Amino acid sequence: MSFKLKWSNQAGQNSFRGFLTSSPGLNRFFAWWWEGLKHCIPQSLQKSLWREKIKIILLPQGEGLRIIRNQKGQKEELGFYDGIQHWDKALLGDSYQLIFRLFSTQTLTKSIELPLAAEENLRQVLAFEMERHTPFNANQVYYDYTIINRHTSREKKIVVGLALVPREILTQWLTKLEKWDLQPERVDVIGTQYEGKVNLLPLEFRSSKTLTLQSKTIFALGGLSFLLIVAALLLPLWQERSVVIKLMAETAAAHLQANRIITIRDQADEAVENSEFLATQKEQAPIIIDLLYELTHLFPDSIWIHQFTINKDQIDIQGEAQEASALITLLENTPYFEQVQFRSPVTTNQVTNRDRFHITARLLLPKATS
User: Fold this and answer.
1) Do 180 and 298 share a domain, yes or no?
2) What predicted TM-score, i.e. pTM, was given to this entire model?
3) Where is the chain membrane-spanning (predicted)?
4) Domain range spanning residue 216?
């Protein structure tokens, strides 16, 4: 096989290609975007820009390759090559894509069900789950995946088709292909649902072809489309700029006026609340004169009061009486007190021969009227 294939090894293109390859979601977006762009271009121009490549299928056989040309679904066997005999490059055609296709016996394929949220970092999740679902870890294989199904209702699951090949097997073949100046753009599995849907080719073996006039035209059209979209979005905003500025000024003035109204309303609410609080306190506070009048007539004339304290709804009385225990009953029988009790034990004054007492009680405050 005497032909040479030219491949671009520019660092910038490799980095860009690696970025796209590691971002399947981005790939799907660009595929959708290019498809939409094609519908905006006349058919005659489409034919010159998007010429269909001839697929050259490389199938491993023994120590060599079976080479098959696939053009618009028509397959033609070109022969066997093992790096020794001469091969006519003209048989491949002008524009072709090399695909190295492994057999299912050389690979492992499996369907895996994962949470739908795993799709955002699916490649990393598959690497982490590799040992659970296969006999290998992620460092022992080259792998890729395709999404088979999504269950977005209750299960929130995603069914992923995983395809992998041991690194040793694929590296041997890729080294041999590189020696023969054959560098495939894709590696997949023949005769399975993964054929044409996965790419097991490692990133370090991938490279982009030198940009042609066709690809430059596509990028130019893409850039022009982007600029037109940006212009379509920004032009109405620029035309309405004065209106927006005027509305912003009016909104700021209205906001300031609203803040003033809110401040006045809050002050009024606070004044009403304070007045209601004072009225409530007045209604709940016992009438001291009535209370003293009641106690004056309630207690016998022989009682001595040393200290009389009222603190909110609590009353505290200290003094001496002929029989202190009788005072508890007297206080409980009035409508003013409840929870009447001695705060400390009753003692006897040896000089006056009277009981020293210290009584506490809870005042029954009148209920506030609404």
Assistant:
1) no
2) 0.47
3) 218-238
4) 211-264
